[in-house]
Design goal:
100 residues; mainly alpha; 0% strand
């Protein structure tokens, strides 16, 4: 199958939460790593220090709740590579040096 000129959705084999990704990176590093969830108001306050209000509000709207499409698992990686995608944990372990 030819993949040239197509748009592919690249995902791992399972959807993960930010907390699960932080835990996987911590495991790969062999060091504690905290995931701190902030409220929308806290995030807005932090974002307004770096960006105009319309950009902060738009970003918050996009990030507030992932859409079903954003958490869907795609078969595209396996189709393109001919092998199953790595789990986030496996990927983090293979790339732990990038987090040091």
């Amino acid at each position: 199958m030819r993949n040239s000129g197509r748009t592919h959705t690249l995902t791992g084999p399972a959807a993960t939460t930010p907390r699960e990704r932080a835990e996987a990176i911590a495991g790969a590093l062999g060091a504690p790593l905290s995931y701190v969830e902030v409220t929308r108001d806290q995030a807005r306050e932090q974002m307004l220090r770096m960006m105009p209000k319309p950009v902060a509000e738009g970003t918050l709207s996009i990030l507030a709740e992932p859409t079903p499409e954003e958490v869907a698992v795609s078969p595209d990686v396996e189709r393109v590579l001919g092998r199953a995608p790595l789990s986030f944990r496996d990927w983090a372990e293979q790339h732990a040096d990038l987090f040091r």
